[in-house]
Amino acid sequence: MWETEPFEIQVSELENFPWIEDAAPILSFIRVWKQDNPRGTIQDYLDWLAVFDLQDEIREDDTRLKLISCHGAKGLQWKTVILIGCNEGIIPSKQSIESGEDIQICNERNLMYVACTRAEDHLILAVRPEEKTDDKGKVYKNPVSRFIGEMK
User: Where does the record place the UvrD-like helicase C-terminal domain (predicted)?
Assistant: First the structure.
């Protein structure tokens, strides 16, 4: 299963995708992260990336990798977009789910739509494994976002 393979194998598999020219900056960024986190897994990287905000450091140079929030992507487009964190509790957020207010869920659905439509050629929706067990045997549920199931 892909999410259990060693990080190096996962990155090397990414290098074989036909659209890799567009994603070369992403792979370079991953390799730099891996040097700083030699024991890190792809899931560790995605967890780190989910909370890391480079928005203040983004340059106007279109050849560079851009890490942008869904809000920050509004009105922009790229050949390849990778949308991470497509799990319940992230999009829609835990707060929106717990509020029980349809308007909050609807707003997040619209936000995901905006993020997905930023891709001109390729859209990659990244999700965590639906279930993960930690070292102590505790099981964490990470269901895929309901919004993915609604896509046609």
Answer: 37-126
